[in-house]
Amino acid sequence: MFDYWKKCLIQVRLVDQALAEAMQVRSTPEEWKSRGFKLLREATYLMATMCFERARYDYGEKLAKVSAFKADADLKHVLSPQEASHLRRQAAEIYEAIGVADSAVECFYMLKEYEKAAVSRLPKKEEV
């Protein structure tokens, strides 16, 4: 059956380096950024981070990294609570730095650091 397809309907070619390069299309930073957000929604954090790096989009890169920290912390919560706490603390600090207060509060709450959670909810001086 394969021989029928090979002889009659399709053309088989080896792909050489020149053809492969000719088929490649450069992606714009906006396309990388869009792909990064798609991967972020799919919880593919490492790939999302790489897309944001190629887009030179610092906020997205930090968001992908912190999302990975939080996901790792959630997975390690039962088996390795100390490591989970460390990851969650890192995530909380990054969330604070990039201005995602709700997620920072959630992390601090999980760490039972209620004062830091409350302070994270307060508006910053420049916001008042």
From TrEMBL:
Classification via InterPro entries: TRANK1
Protein name: Uncharacterized protein LOC115739940
Biological source species: Rhodamnia argentea
Source species taxonomy: Eukaryota, Viridiplantae, Streptophyta, Embryophyta, Tracheophyta
